[in-house]
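re the bet — no i am not wrong, look at it urself. input seq straight from the record:
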Amino acid sequence: MLREFYIRMLLGFASKPRGLISKAVALLIGGVLFLALIPWLLIRFAGWILPSRLIVAPGAAAVAAAGLSLAAGLFWLVWAVWTQLTIGQGTPNPAVPPRKLIVKGPFRYCRNPIQLGAMLYYLGLATFISGFAAGLASFTIAFIAGSLYHRLVEEGELRRRFGGEYEEYRRQTPFLVPRFRRK
């Protein structure tokens, strides 16, 4: 019942055209939430659930891996947000969603490139700050939470909004792990 209520609410948001200011505010809120607040909460939670001996300053190899993960995550995030703005005419924020189904750019390779980018970003940031165990915990929590949201809520909303076009895209495009060769 709550799921259905939330899907109907998202459909209501999608039915209203939004201007440039709404999109800018949505991006600002999303940026603060997903690039600062959520990572901070994940790192704090990892520190709470992991034994203290696993929360260590990262060594040189972990710092290098964290840097690569941060860069890859930010690449996927920026590319996906830009694609939503330019092709989809919306934002990742559910209150100002894309107006069109996006099947180009990073969405050509997986259906959830923003989740992929966020997971890699959280892995890199938490590894850099608190070590690999905290990075892995952050990555895992983001994977579970994001996947549940996309499977239970977002896919239902997209099915209703885009119908067969979304179903065809869903059949051809992997959920999260990019496939760089399409059939």
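see?? Residues 2-172 form one domain. told u. also The chain has a mean pLDDT of 91. so pay up
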